[in-house]
Amino acid sequence: MKKIVFVFFVVISTFLIGCGGGGGGDGGDLFGSLAVNRVTNAAGISAQWDSQAKANNTALTQCGAGCVVVMEFANGQCAALARGSNVSMG
Questions:
Q1: Are 75 and 23 in contact (CB under 8 A)?
Q2: What would the pLDDT profile of 60-77 be if each residue is shown by its tens digit?
Q3: Cα–Cα dist 63/72, whole Å
């Protein structure tokens, strides 16, 4: 049982997901972004911002130095990132 719980924790802790929502309360668009650093394996994700620039900046800030935005999404779209134990991402 301990092994199953540990594997579940590892899978959850290395998986990031975000969704852009269904549009703002005033009918405006909502944006999200996913940023990664392919050298350090760092990642950042943001969602439900009122501009793509704000979403990108938030994801880049969460990720840290050397990161780049690899996906932008909006209005109900989602993004996901899975990281493997061998530092591979997809």
A1: yes
A2: 999 999 999 999 999 988
A3: 15
